[in-house]
Structure formats: structure tokens, C-alpha cells
Amino acid sequence: MLSAEDRVHPAFARLPPWVQEKLSPKAIDYIRRVHHWVETECVPAERVVKAQLAVNKWKTPPLIQELRVKAKKEGLFNLFLPKSFGDLSPGLTNLERTMNCHAPETGNIELLAKYCNEGQKQKWLLPLLNGETSSAYSMTEPDVASSDATNIACRITRDPKDPDTLVVNGRKLYGNVAWNEDLSVYILMACSDPENPDPWKRHTTIIVPKPTPGFRIVRNLTIMGYDCAPEGHGEYIYENARVPAANIILGEGRAFEIAQGRLGPGRIHHCMRLIGQTERAYELALIRATDPRKKPRGKLIGEFDSNIERIAAMRIQLDSMRLVVLNAAHTMDVHGNKSGRYAIAQSKIIVPEMAANIIDECMQMYGGQGLTQHTALPEMWMYARFVRIADGPDAAHRHQVGRDQLKTAAAIKGRHDGYAKRYEELCRTWGVEKEEFA
């Protein structure tokens, strides 16, 4: 239970009472310390990190490396694995750890921790957990409609002369850029059994080390003009790339099982990050609205009625986004990721679109400056727009939610038929003439 002092602390003030009541003493301590860390170490470092990237965009900035070391010493490294992961976790629930976390490592680390055997964990997971290496997830393809992942066509075959070796051929988009020296592995989803009558068992997930012969990067993909360095988004070719069969995760034909286990948490992570970024954008808008140097027609920007209403609308939308994500996190804790799929989909639909709209309004309040590198707003907006596609387009999530809701129609009709029957009984009892409705 939060103290009266904690309830007004910036780290907790936006949390609804039902969430505050569920925070363990451990979580309260972590959240306090993470908030202090972000405010004093991360936010002030942003422009320095950008300057270091300008010198070598595909190398992890030295300041980031230093912050990782300091975060480990402070016990603030790898807080995102929920307590269901046992000793690998700091012991927080999904609800308690609704704080910013880094993609794609969160999703990839959860995948490796959940589905890899012990040998694979020692070789690939532990270096990621220690921050010694980074990873990429390789799923999307340019030549098929991969929003329906059963279309994924990149092929995995066994070498007929050496069945312990897999041969991979195909083309992929969006795996992080190979030019970053910290990047060590790609987690690849590809088709291994195209003739299987069950389309959900045709695909396999394997670990592809970056220096694999036959595996090469074509180029970095910009996202709406941004190179997203130092991680980036690459386009890749597999030409008879040879990978040990020991690198298969969980088993052949189980890629969809793995993907769903990764993408559920991965989707809510995107939403957590977006809430943090949108709060930053909102703070910038408040600063701009009260800047005494900016007085069009002799009034502060925040004194115009339209902007007062804009600020109110943004605050309400932001709080709504947080409630949706908190609900999804709590649902995952109580009922599991699979049962929480509606709440996760709801978050993934609402949050990116609403975040983009809020950030757009913040840019508008900055006028021409809001479109330049004078603020981080354009890059924040780009990320929000990107997330409407990442880990499944929002149209696909809407389709899933809508399809699930239509399945409830029969039960709803049964209830309404009951209303009509009871209405007829009441008409007879009270001598009221029954009206006919469509």
C-alpha cells in the first residue's frame, strides 16, 4: 500500500487507486528508483547520445554502455521479465512493471527464456540478459502478405548429406541492422514443412548467428525518413545459409506457438513505451503553452480557448490509454497471456493511434518548430505510427476483436428474445397493447 507521500509522487500519481493498492513493497521501491534513474540519468543524456550517434550511427553510444553498467550496479537492469520466469525475474508482475522497456530485447529475451533448452539459454540468452549482446526478430517478408503469417515463405530445409544442418533461403525485412557490432543473433521464423495440411504447423523458429555464411544484409530500411540508429531495420537475404539443427527452438513446426508467446507481451511492451513517450510529448506541450516568449496576439499559447480544450483532451486521452494498458497487464497476470489476448489487442489498437494523435497535437502547438529536430516530437510521432504496423497491423487486431465479438451475438440474441417474451407477458398482465418492432 502506498503512503500518502508516495500517492502524490510523480511515479505513482497517475496510477488509479486499484493499481496503487496492488503494488508490493518491492514494486514500490523499484518504481521509485526507476523514476529517479530515468529523470536524472536517461532524459538528460538524450542529446549526448544523439551527438555520439552522429559520429558513428551503427555503434551503440558509449554513454549507453556506461548507463548499462551503472544500471546493473543499481539493480535496475532487466526488470521486465515477469515473476512467472522464476530466478530470471526480479519478481514483479506485469502490472507492477508497466514502465518503459527496450525493443526487441524484451520480446526476444522472453521468447528465449520461455522456449529454449538449457544449452541454448547458456549460449544465447545469458549474454542478452547481461547486456553484452543484442538480438533481432526476423519474421516479416516483402514478397507475401505477412500480416497473415501463414504466408511466410522463407524456406528451411535439411541438408540431404548432413541432416544436422539446416539450409535457409528467402528474403526478410525489419530485423535489426547487422552493422551494429553488438548484434549477435537473429530469431528467424520460416517455413519448414509447406505440405503440412495444418497451416499452423508448417513453420519453425531457429536461431541464426549474425556471421552465418549465406546470410547478408541488403540495406537499412528507413522508417518515414528515420534510420532508427543504432538498432535500425534491415532488409536481408538468405542464400543457402547453413545453420546447425541444434538451433531449432522448441521443435520443428512450433513457430506459431512461439510467435504468439512472444507477440502478446511484445505488443503490450510497445504500448508501455508509447505511454511514456506521449507523456514526454505532453510535458513539452505544457511548456510551450506557458512559454512567456511565445505570445501570438499578446496571449500565451495556453490562454487560447482552443488550446485549453486541446490540453484537456490530450490529458483525458493519455489517462485512458494508461487504464487500457494497466487492465491488459493485470489480465495477463490473473488469467495468462492467452486469455488476455482481447485486452492486449485492445491496447494495441487504441494506444498507437491515440498516441500519434496526441503527439500530432503537441507538434501543432509548437508550430513550425514542432516539425524539426528542435524537439523529439517528430521522432516520437514516427514511432507511434510505426507501432500501428509493428507486431501486427491494427486492422488485423480489429478483425480479431470484431470476429470474437460477433461470436457473442447468438447469446445476446437469446437474451433479447427473453426480453421480448417477458414484454409480451407484461402486456397481457397490464392490459397494454403490444407494439411490433423490427
UniProtKB/TrEMBL annotation:
Transmembrane segments: none annotated. One of its GO terms (biological process) is fatty acid beta-oxidation using acyl-CoA dehydrogenase. Pfam families: Acyl-CoA_dh_1, Acyl-CoA_dh_M. Residues 256-404 form the Acyl-CoA dehydrogenase/oxidase C-terminal domain. Keywords: FAD, Flavoprotein, Oxidoreductase. Residues 136-233 form the Acyl-CoA oxidase/dehydrogenase middle domain. Its cofactor is FAD. GO terms for cellular component: cytoplasm. GO terms for molecular function: acyl-CoA dehydrogenase activity; flavin adenine dinucleotide binding. Belongs to the acyl-CoA dehydrogenase family. This is Uncharacterized protein. The lineage of its organism: Eukaryota, Fungi, Dikarya, Ascomycota, Pezizomycotina.
